[in-house]
Each structure stands twice: as C-alpha cells, then as structure tokens.
Amino acid sequence: MSEQERWQAAERLALVLTEGGLQRMSARALAVFLFTDAGAVTMGDIADRLGVSAGSVSGAVKALLSVGLIERLPAPGSRREHYRLRDDAWPTLFSTQNTVVHVMLEAADAGIATTASGDPAHERLTRMRDFYAFLLSELPGLLRRWEERRAPR
Questions:
Q1: How far is CA 37 from CA 30, 45, 86, in A?
Q2: What does the CA dihedral 142, 36, 70, 31 come to, rounded to 10 degrees?
C-alpha cells in the first residue's frame, strides 16, 4: 500500500468516526495516531499531516486525552508535547464510558420517578434503565475476558 493510499484510508476512517458522532477534528487526529509510523507525535505533526493549523488540533488532542485514548509522553530536551495512542486505548475508552452509562441510568431513574406504572413512557424508561444496568454489570467481566485474550500465551 502506498503512503497516499494509507492516508486516504485514514481519512475514510475519520469520516466513519465523524458519522458515528466523534467531532471531525478529533476523528481526524485519532486517525493520525492510528496510522502513523512514528512512536509519538506532536500537535504540529498532526497539524502538518492534516494540513490544518496547530491551534485547530489542540481541542482534538485534549478530547482524546480526556477519554484516555492517547497519552502525553515525556520528551526531555523538547519544548513540544509528545503524544501517542495508548496500548490499552480501547479498554480505557470503554471503561471511561462507564460515566455515560451512569448518567443514562440516573436519567432513566429520574424519568421513572416522574411517570406512573403502566404509562408507556414509564415502560420505555424502565427498559432503558434495565439495559444500562445490565451493560454496566457486564463491563468488568467483558474487560477481564479481553485482557485474558490479549495476554501472551
């Protein structure tokens, strides 16, 4: 695969991520982390790869840091911050998303408290709460099985 084809694939992935709800610049920056050959990149590297200003990359990097997909690396002697995709990015993201599950549970419970049994809204909110409670209860085992699968044999 040529370098051009590689980065076209990265842009296609970014488009899919954007369609899935990720902010456009965050999706494009994440694609850089996924497709780069470098061990670490700076905001300037990302901006150069994407053909945008370094300032426009800042928010994307902060967003990716906040959900645990990337990490800041020490870079002795450099004035620039260096980042890389975490080795455990996907389980970390999934674990971080537990806060979303808790918010959805709380919202469902609040809605259930304001509706009467037998009300269609009450039933829908109960299904919502039950689904998120189930999901939350399954996450630890799911992540444990993932780690077991990833462990060296």
A1: 14, 12, 14
A2: -70
State the number of CA atoms in the 13 A half-sphere of 132 facing the CB.
Answer: 18
Q: Let me know whether 125 and 72 are in one domain.
A: no
Report how far apart, in Å, the C-alpha atoms of 97 and of each of 84, 93, 110, 138 are: 20, 6, 20, 13
Retrieve residue 130's tokens. 């039950």
Q: What angle do CA 70, 72, 75 make, to 5 degrees?
A: 140
Is 13 among the domain residues?
Answer: yes
* pLDDT 10s digits, 20-43: 889 999 999 999 999 999 999 999
How buried is residue 10: exposed, middle or buried, by Cβ count under 10 Å (0-12/13-18/19+)?
buried
How many domains are there within the chain?
A: 2
The gap from C-alpha 101 to its chain's centroid, in whole angstroms, comes to 14
Query: Structural domain of residue 42, as residue ranges?
Result: 3-87
Residues 7 and 79 in one domain: yes
Q: Record the pTM.
A: 0.79
Q: Which residues contact 146 (CB under 8 A, 6 or more apart)?
A: 91
